[in-house]
Amino acid sequence: MEEEMKQSKFKRICVFCGSSPGKKSSYKDAAIELGKELVARNIDLVYGGGSIGLMGLISQAVYDGGRHVIGVIPKTLMPREITGETVGEVKPVADMHQRKAEMARQSDAFIALPGGYGTLEELLEVITWAQLGIHDKPVGLLNVDGYYNSLLSFIDKAVEEGFISPSARHIIVSAPNAKDLMKKMEEYFPRHESVASKLSWETEQLGYTPKCDQMSLIRTPPNMRTGDYLEGMISDYVGGKAAKLKAHKSSSARLVTALTCLQFAFAVYGTFLLYYMSPAVDLRAKPDFQWATKIANNWRQFIITPHVLGHYQESANSLVQATIPLDVCEHEKIDFLQKKSNDVQMIKMKRDLYDEILNFQSKSVGTETLNALMAMKSKWDLKGPNRPKVTVILNHFKRKTLCAQLDTLLQQTLPFHHVWVLAFGSPNELSLKRIVDSYNDSRISFISSSYDFKYYGRFQMALQTESDLVYILDDDMIPGKKMLQILSHVAGTDKYKNSVLGSIGRILPFRQKDFTFPSYRKFRSKEAGLYLPDPAYDITVDKIVQVDFLSSSWFLSAELVKTLFIEKPFTFMTGEDLHLSYQLQKYRNAGSFVLPVDPNDKETWGDSEHRLAYVSETTVIFKDIVQVRDDQWWKALSTGYITQWAAMYPQKIDALFYAHSVDEVRALAPLLEKFRSTVGKKAYLVVSGGHFCPCEDAATALKWPKLVCKERRFKIFDLAIGALSGISDSEVPVVQAVYSSMKGLIKIHNPSVVITVADIDTNVKKALKMASETILNGTRFVLLPRPSISKVLWMADLRSTALPNWNRMRLSISIITQNRVQSLMRLLKSLSDAYYLGDEIPISFNMDSKVDEETIRLVNSFEWPHGPKTLRRRIIQGGLIRAVSESWYPASDDDYGLLLEDDIEVSPYYYLWVKYALLSYKYDPQISLPELSSISLYTPKIVEVVKERPKWNATEFFKHIHSNTPYLHQLPCSWGAVFFPKQWREFYVYMNMRFTENAKANPVQIPKSRTNGWQASWKKFLIDMMYLRGYVSLYPNFPNQASFSTNHMEPGAHISAKDNVVKHDKSDFEVPLVKDDFKTFLPNGKLPPASKLPSLNLFNQPVSLKGLKAAGAKLGQDVLKCDNQTEIVTVDHGTGVYSHIKPFINLSFSFDKIKRRIMVHTLLKYKNDIFA
């Protein structure tokens, strides 16, 4: 048994078999048994490349056993013989002849399983080659259930009849099972005579050198793998089979002698010529043999062919005899100790920062030890059938570590699929190639080019792999023997499948106290970030840690490599490591992680000699390189890269402005500057960059110094949209760049609003909208028409908590009209001239049955660009009370109704007033003002509820507080007001319960109010409800009683022409409209806090909000009976239904006492305000 399990003399065996499994199960069992036998003897498999039939069974068995599998298949047969995924290495060839030649070249012996014509043809070909002396490799028949008995009988018959020599009969070895067959083949020794042993030209093509040629100068290395040269050799061999060499006979001895002399002379000449054509020889330094030098110069380009990506061609050095690694390997001398710091302060700073990062990550994403990672369920299984294919890419220039890397890779617990050694512009190209050749492993390829592809070349090569995973290593990394297994397992877990893994990484700088970011190389700075692991400060990675980018090694799926090339890098000089992590996060939401290690097991280390990588990463480098890398990581952070600092310290700003052109920068400038100059507010500008809007041009437009585009401080972000690879007429690259960068910036800075101009490019608008909505942090996307921007500077005065509600409310305009077409035209023109901030504003026309023809024509022809237009006409005349009260009903709690009769005219600023007030008093979570039920556009000039109707001037009345302070009033406005949805629902229910045509029958009689006698007035019922509930309206108060609406008091349903002349003076009702920005008139240039708003009762007397409620309760005339001393009616504002009664105040106080105390408190408050 021990003898059978000893190391086989065969490294690879070629197996011929059928693409069909055959009818007997014994054939399939034999294929699997043979595969296991090869594995037991540490033999690799060469076969026909198919994934079906016996080919598929044996290849899977060998692959599952951990041995290398090489499949050689013509390209035309691939669709037929490969179904699903193949295992091992697949070598496509042009035709069947090349297939046999390549299989023979790769193999040390041949075995035939049961098969059909193709199997027999391949078998007889290699038997013929052995008979001709082209090779002396054993040829075996696995004679399963006597399958080949008839063939062996036929061969014996041919020997008997004299067609095959008896010695040639021994070329074939046969046995009924795999174990016996392998034993015979191990013992095989060729006994037959070669029929044509001088066919050395064919011998060379198969990579086989007979013993008689050992002294020959020309010897083709047996490990020639990829390249045009090799392909040409095989093609020549295949073509040569049809045209046999003809021996030229000479009958003249003189001719033979002459030819012999000429051959000798040419051999001498050739020796010198080959010597001088060697790449190692400097032709300029050789004064002699001018003729040879000249010829060598002229022909060198043809002999030493330029290397190309993916292939190399054998140069003159291929004539040198093949070597083994021991002969050519060089090793890096590590004659220095690992750097250790003795700076106690720095050790503490670095350690504290690392602990802070690890603590954050353990709470946010979770961190695992190496054992915990290996215990996680993984897609890839070392021992199971789903084993990953890993291509390892080694990038070499001058360092002498290739042999150390190859040695450890060949000993990995998970075998690699391929190793590609790259030498781009390397002065050591030839020595590196010799090292690769010496390993004589078809899985290891050498790829070189005289052009230096810099740091991105290895990733460009990674795009060519067909493997599942790619492991890219710098020449300073010597991984432990378990690294491929560990990396593959982690990459197969659900948590880390979309990640790039490595062994060394960096945490980019944190923000300093002065709000700037330091260089990543700043000395003695905690904020400069971390290098992990960092032996100098005793920082080892014992749990997986997310970093901002990886250095020296990268392990990721082949699919993720493509992401690196979505955008043009900031520079090709350096920084491919950061660019990879940045692009992966930006476009794949993928993270970068440094894996933990077992400190007691070097085989788990990604770099067993960390000194090499550490020195190259941490020693002093050129200042300009540091500057380039600083610029690069700052550019990434400025375009949405969420670094560990950004994840740990999410920012909160008020506004993020976006401009795609310099004109847009100028348009947004007033509002941007207002935000930036307002205490407590933060706002930054994002520009598209590139040729659309360079940062420097934007800074000039804002009158900022151009230095802001260079300093590492948040103020202006240049997205460099032109950095997308290539030039395209499609909108996709721009949309992709804006969306991906803005998504990151929004996630980092959490702005309450993203603001841009309404007429921005449509595709950019879509990208901004999508980015704002994707991040679920409450950010709202605001599109401002250019003419409105300078009119909404009050936006910066809103609380940060109110800004996210910018787009939440909706104003519905409801116009009540019948037969005043001129009045309606005036109203519609004023509405059309107003500023609407890009919001959607639906408008509806409510007409009674007797509407005139001119009004209908006007309404039909009116165009409203701000939202949908709706027309309603009653069949039966309902009168004004129904026309108004039924004109609007809220669709949601964010739907507000503006009710306008056609004799009203509005100011261009009316919508700005409404929106500003709603955001300040209803949509600020920090403000509670439930009593507010409407916002008036109009400022009254008389006290209309008192019989005498005295004139009243709010500016004069509040001059001791502030002449133009807005105020709260218990009287609702019917000449232009916005009504709130909750209170309007309640009003509907109240009207249903209390409506009566007879004013005297109304149970609510407010003391001393002339509204008690109003007939059929919807406003009378609204006044009653507001009085009972203690509700108030917000009123404007500007010089000369300027308002956002005015009432022209034209004859209509309530006011006849006769009444208008006798009882109503238009001067008491008409007020001037606000024509300029009203913000400057407000106290301190903004709306005062809700707690500072003065409140008036129905009779224009100052009463607190609590006092207003107390007065309503005292009346005792509510819709539900209750004790007016102790109880109050409550309302379900979702339906407007009065639901139940609840306790109101303490019984020990009377309402009169409460009222007196409120009045005293109010007067004292006003007095304090005056002295203040």
TrEMBL record:
- Reactions this protein catalyses: 9-ribosyl-trans-zeatin 5'-phosphate + H2O = trans-zeatin + D-ribose 5-phosphate; N(6)-(dimethylallyl)adenosine 5'-phosphate + H2O = N(6)-dimethylallyladenine + D-ribose 5-phosphate
Q: Known EC number(s)?
A: 3.2.2.n1
Query: Does this UniProt record's set of keywords contain Transmembrane?
Result: yes
Q: Which GO terms describe its cellular component?
A: cytosol; nucleus
TM region positions: 255-277
**GO MF, one annotated term:** hydrolase activity
What the protein does? Cytokinin-activating enzyme working in the direct activation pathway. Phosphoribohydrolase that converts inactive cytokinin nucleotides to the biologically active free-base forms.
This chain's protein is named cytokinin riboside 5'-monophosphate phosphoribohydrolase
Write down the species: Acer saccharum (Sugar maple)
